[in-house]
Amino acid sequence: MADPKTRLDWFLSRRIHVVTGKGGVGKSTLCAALGLIAARHGRRAVILETDTKERMSQLFEIPPVGYREVEVYPSLYAKNVDPDHSMEEYVLRFVRFQAVYDAIFKKSFLRHWVQSMPGFREFVVLGKIWDMGQAMDGRSPDYDLMIIDSPATGHGVSLWQLPESTRKAVGGTGPIAHYAAKMRDYFADPGNTAYHVATIPEELPYAETCELVAALRDKMHLPPGFLLVNQIPPAPFHPEARPLFEKLSGKTSEREHLDRQVGRPGITQALVRAGISQSARHAQAASYLDKLAALGLTTVRLPFVYAKSYAKTAVEGISLSLETELGRPL
Amino acid sequence: MKNPREWVGGRNIVVCSGPGGVGKTTVSAAIALAEARRGRKVLVLTIDPARRLANALGLERFESDVQRVPKEKLGGKFEGELDAMMLDVKAEWDSVMRRYAPDEGTLGRILQNRMYQYISDNLVGAQEFMAMERLHYLHSQGKYDLIVLDTPPTKHALDFLEAPRKLFQFLEDGAFVKVFLDSGRRGGIQLLKMGTAAVFRILEPIIGKNVIQDIGEFVRSMETYYEGFRQRARATNELLASEKTVFFLVTAPTPLALSETRYFHQRLMEAKIPFGGFVFNRVHGHAPGTAEDLEKARETFTNPETKARLLGKIEGDPALGREWASLVDRLGTNFLNLETLAEVEEKKMTGLSDLLSSDQFVVRVPIFDQDIHDPAGLELINSHLFQN
């Protein structure tokens, strides 16, 4: 493929997309929106969740998503990569015989021991994702593009660090070290993978984003993707109008005069205060957007969505505004 | 209904749990500050990976050990004390191993062991386990009247309750590795004849021989610690389920946060953990005004007389006059947006409140124009959290 010109081209040219960030900033929704964009551009895409509690069913208004992938939208699939199923599939590739697997992992006293080994379950989940990634290189791949809804900051960093910490733990040699190193290199390949950081323009998420970017990009050397700044409060009015409304808010007689004309006490203040608050939040968000820009990542900005139900329609709406944003040059 | 003040006042441990990104750390800091102001000796302990608590308490950064928050930074004088600590998982492991080391030799061996380094190196669950160890240690020292514990986001709340169990399982089940290695060293052919040897032959190519030896060594060194770990974990679990403790679920009225909160509430109930109530943070309140009122307000605001008066008398920027109609429209749209938000939030919060029993509370902390990131902001939260 020719050099990507827009963010969208670039997005479609990478096959593994990891979305991480602070809890509550909308990672799952952004994964869903990215998936929709990929699907609309003719890619077979799959959203992978790694948590006990999957969210795609809520966002796409479908029954709970399990280990078996389901089509949530034409050409878009979702799968919950839970450790138990992953373990069976992944370990079987080494053990080769179901009977032997059963003997060790189902019947043997070893089962508890192996499963209770810290990090083992997460390692297996990563192994499964790696496996799926490699399958995309095959001749008739199930998917063209993978979107991974990564755990929030701290746990996310641990997860992506796991191949390297496992490699060190086993002394750098032997089969596990070998696979861990390959896995590490695979997930760190800038031609394949992009780590997108989701955030919202507020003080504490901003601080956490800086730490996260430092860990992923500067310490772990993982290829950076977009900085997805979500839930930006839209400006209620031009900033120049704010002093006017602030003055009005402070003039009781004027407000009461207007209230009487409307026939609803307090309406003027309610309208004006809502505007001023929103304006303040917008201004604050703008200051964090400036600071976030200093991180030097390709920044994608998404407005706050006011919707009565936060499901399929809202996700579609978000994916459309995201796509517009991605249409900009790299 | 018992209000938050009564719950906090009567307990030694307050655990703030809930989904990520709802201001849990901030609420924890606020509760700690309020109780210190009431004269208690308080510690706020965060195990959230991000170092955010410092900002809200007006501190530059955290040490990995207990740190006194200077009162002058908190504004005003009070009798109590406020300490803060951010858990550094790696440092905590080492300090636990030192604290309970049977002898220097064992300590040296364990700190050198690769398996130990791997396990203590910030893996999922280890952090919660260490928080429990620290909580036990601080509580048993008896230096504090109140410890406020801020936990990681909901989805890992299960780790928070289950992490110690997982590690014990590993140690218990790992004991056979040690037996195997010991017998191997003594040339114990008998054991090799048993199924274990066959299992190892299969496992070895997968995980490597040296790994099995490392694990054996790890399990052997940990043996002397094991009983202590188990006793402390049991004591901590009992403490968390006792009348000395209360859990608050801190959440925000967004759909995803609330569905996680519902799930975690269910888990708390199953685990029979004492639960105080819900703190809804960043709530958009309703303002008076119907759609009809808004339409009338728009007419009123845009009529030429009002426009002239507002722009003139209030001394607004004359340039605003040219786009006055659209300005008024946007004011109305903004109001409706926020009302939509308030309506959605209210419905969701009511649904969750239905889960409560009679002595549990619901408090709503409104969204503020500015982020909370200093002591004054914490006081503002407290004015809502602890209002009568």
Number of strands of chain A: 8
Strand order within the widest sheet of chain B? 3-4-2-5-1-6-7-8
Main β-sheet description of chain B? 8 strands, mixed
| Largest Cβ-defined interface | A-B, 96 and 100 residues
Class inferred from helices and paired strands of chain B: alpha/beta
What percent of the residues of chain A sit in helical stretches (DSSP H or I)? 55-70%
Strand content of chain B: 5-15%
Helix content estimate of chain B = 55-70%
Run of helices and strands of chain A: HEHEHEEHHHHEHHEHEHHHEH
Could you list the spans of chain B in which at least 5 consecutive residues all have pLDDT below 50?
184-194
Beta-strand residue percentage of chain A: 5-15%
Report the C-alpha radius of gyration of chain B, rounded: 28 Å
Would you summarize the structure shown here?
The complex is a heterodimer of chains A (330) and B (388). By secondary structure, chain A is of the alpha/beta class. Helices cover 55% and strands 14% of the residues of chain A.
